[in-house]
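Name: Lipoxygenase domain-containing protein
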Amino acid sequence: MAVEDRNMPHGLRLLIEDYPYANDGLLLWSALESFMKEYVAAYYPSAAAVQADGELMSWYAEVLTAGHADHRNAPWWPAMDTPADLANILTTLIWLASAQHAALNFGQYPIGAYIPCRPPLLRRLLPEMGDPDYDYFLEDPHRYYLSAMPELTQATIFMTVIDTLSTHSADEEYLGERREGWTGDGRAMEVFKGFAAEVRRAEEEIERRNRDPAMRNRCGAGVLPYELMTPSSPPGITCRGVPNSCSI
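Structure predicted for Lipoxygenase domain-containing protein:
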């Protein structure tokens, strides 16, 4: 979906230009990556400093050997030798727990809660030639499909589950938001303030894109704005006009 291109803002050229997930995701990935590079540099100025941190090395070894024992010898594990290595690993972890999680999880209700669009089960199999229902199926496939839908109780339970998965709690913390006093290190606070400002700029850009009629995959009649990467959100379910979030 993308190729490396140093002439592009994030070093990548998207093969589909109007690709909301990738376009918005690159804004947040870039902010996270810059934040982690500066943060790590404040505490690990050299490769020697990284390698001398026994607790850090033990943590990463446990990730490989215990957390993923079945892939412990895989050749694709990233190295943990330099500040750049550590920053890249931390960026990936934070991305997975925030923006990536939001993209996969919080958009379920608007699409999946409408049972005919995404039924959790069908009460009838598609008939094969010779089955008693085969002629009925050919005569009116639409009606046959509706007759296979979950009954009311099953549908309600499924909608409730999807509602719970997609709901934002009132006490969520979002990217770029931290209560004062989480660290007494002035260096870390300054780096974090820069990150928070970058996240706010990303949110403003996402909102601008969602109003741009030239972006047909996120703006226009019958098209939901792409808000899964918006870094803040009120509590509750995401609907049209109510931002989603990438909370952590």
